[in-house]
Amino acid sequence: MAKDRPIPPIDPRLLAQHLRRAARQANARAADTGGRATLGFFDWARRVPEPKTGPLDFRRFPFQRELYTEGAELPEVAVMKSTQVGASAWMARWAIYWADRGKTVLYLFPGEEQLRPFYNSRIAPLLRGPHLAKRVANASVSNVNQRQIGNGWLNLRGAQAVAGLESVDADAIAIDEYDLIPPAAIPIVERRISAPTSMGLIRRIGWPSIDDHGIARQYDLSDRRRWFVKCPACGEQQFLRFFPRRAAEEDEEGDGLPNATSAYVDRDGELLRCGKCEKPLAPDAVRDGEWVAEFPTRDSRGYHVHRLLVPAISLRAMIEASRRTGAFELETFYNRDLGEPYSPKEGRLSKAAIAAAQSAGGNYLQGPWDAGYAGDGLVTMGVDSASARDLTVRISLHAHDLSTKRALFIGEVESFDTLAEMMDIYSVRMAAIDHLPDGRLARDFTQRFYGRAYYVRFLPPAAREPFGFDPTERSAAINRTEAIDATLALIRATRNRLPIDLPEGYVEHMRNVVRFHELDDLGRRTVGYRSLGPNDYLMAELYDYFALQLAQVEVLAHEMARPTYVRLEDHVEFERSSLLDPDPPYSPGPDEGEYGALGVFGDDEDVRDWIDMNEWP
Fold it and tell me: Per-residue pLDDT tens for 261-294?
């Protein structure tokens, strides 16, 4: 075996020569890329000023500094925000930064109507700035949906065009107005960074809508950073919040923060107060704050950015908005001003309401679907149909007075043939079936069980009538918003008794709609339900509710169509004779009075003469 050779000493001249060569190569690469290879995100962003206001202003927006100085390479960051706090400007720079470094970035908006104004007002002015203009001047592709920046690409897409999302393999994704993105588009776009060569970076921002959904859920899954300030009077470290924090509320939330004190807005004095000593907090105290994570060991980073974090913010408009009582105004105040989710009791079904409906039913088991029902009670069925998956079914037994109902079956069946068996073994009196997506199958089923089934569609939003039906065609229509209202109200009032063995996904489906209040282009207030994800079981419950209405309407229609007989003596006073009477009484009626001749013709002298001339009896 050969002996190990000794390592020769390093020649200092050769080492110096190698270092000089490496430095020249690095400088050349930096010159070719405009120096971008040597710049971190913070230094790069300072070279890209705001078109209207100039350089980034960390004195006015102190909470933004960490967004620019830390975490540009982190896999996930979520920003739950209010409006007008500079979060979209930060994310636009982050997306352009990575494109400028030769990466492919996908920037996602809810739709084209948000994409184009944002590009024209936010992104295009940045690209025309002095630092980036030379990077995009010779781009081979230059349009609203795709910009080449150096060797990198910035792709802008609306979430409604799913085909456009599938065509981009990205290193980084930026999702704006997260809660307005159609739920079906989220998994599609997030798969665009799944390639082994992708950097796998994703940023999500937006104002929240409701609890446990969208950006609020992403923030809850993160390390949950909040802006902490120090009271100059007592030295207490505390985060900022609009309403005073109660002691009981601290125990319920269980923040796990360094302490649970929070500064709050004194609405009468129009100022911030310390949550401990009640002394006023000056803008400098807010300016000198810092981000503190509730769960620092979590991989995903999250920020709650709201208007109280802006030191010089005027509180008067926020205070006025907080005192409004309308549902739309309250929702807007919480979501857009405080950057907090808002879930009124009537806005979304709670898990507690579902649990109460199970308890009201006695915590029973529904059993196998072929167990059937052999009683004489009224049984209804609701079916949410589809062409590519199982049918979702709810079958109910109604109380004699129709005040409550009990689930006999909640689940999925594989075909209309199985559904037909259930109609018989459960003695279903009335079924309501979704007419989409294959109306032919629904219509065939209603004809097969003619008189016991309807296929159902939703009325247009502008329709005035709550429902309509055609008993001959076996078709019916219902107002979607009112039907969901009634369906959820039955559970909240524990009039819909549920089993404890609910199928997987039932609770999620029932909670995947949220009631909204919006203003249309003409300023008119509209109310409806926005879908947050799959809601097949909710639709089956809705159709089951409508099946009872159809059964009642059909009974009423039959009653109205049936001929009725009225006894004459109930309306005219006279004595009815009988053929069994050997000497029945007979009277031609009174000569005078209400029904006599004078009563009919009056007491006119000419009439009397006419009667005498014609020998009137």
Answer: 899 999 998 999 999 999 999 999 999 999 999 9
The residue type at 309: L
Name the packing angle between helices 439-448 and 416-425 (round to 10°): 30
The token pair that represents 404 in the structure block: 């409550």
- Listed residue (178, 218, 168) closest to 198, CA to CA: 168
Q: What is the per-residue DSSP string for 158-188?
A: ETT-HHHHHT---SEEEE-SGGGS-TTHHHH
Residues 522-559: tens digit of each pLDDT:
666 778 888 888 899 999 999 999 999 999 887 766 66
C-alpha distances (whole Å) from 210 to each of 250, 300, 347, 550 are: 21, 21, 9, 34
Average pLDDT of 219-233? 96
Return the amino acid letter for 614.
Answer: N
CA 418 vs CA 11, 185, 225: distances in Å: 86, 33, 52
In the CATH scheme, what architecture does the domain 36-224 have? Answer: 3-Layer(aba) Sandwich (3.40)
* Dist CA 226 CA 66 (whole Å): 12
CATH topology of domain 351-561: Nucleotidyltransferase; domain 5 (3.30.420)
Contact 178, 204 (CB under 8 A): yes
Alpha carbon distance 503, 538 (integer Å): 12
User: What strand order describes the sheet that includes 496-497?
Assistant: 467-470, 475-478, 453-458, 430-434, 378-384, 391-398, 405-413, 496-497
Are the beta carbons of 263 and 239 closer than 8 angstroms?
yes
Structure tokens at 44: 């790069």
What tokens appear for 32 in the block? 């070719």
Closest CA to 543 of 446, 447, 417, 427: 446
SS3 labels along 228-296:
EEECCCCCCEEEECCCCCCHHHHHHHCCCCCCCCEEEEECCCCEEECCCCCCEECHHHHHCCEEEECCC
Whole-number Å distance between alpha carbons of 217 and 208: 9
CATH 3.40.50.300 segments of the chain = 36-224
Counting Cα atoms < 13 Å in the Cβ hemisphere of 191 gives 9
Q: What is the pTM of this model?
A: 0.70
Whether 165 contacts 115, CB under 8 Å = no
- Total length of the chain: 617
Least confident of 168-177, 296-305, 524-533, 552-561: 552-561
350 sits in the region (left: phi over 0; alpha: psi -120 to 50; else beta) called beta
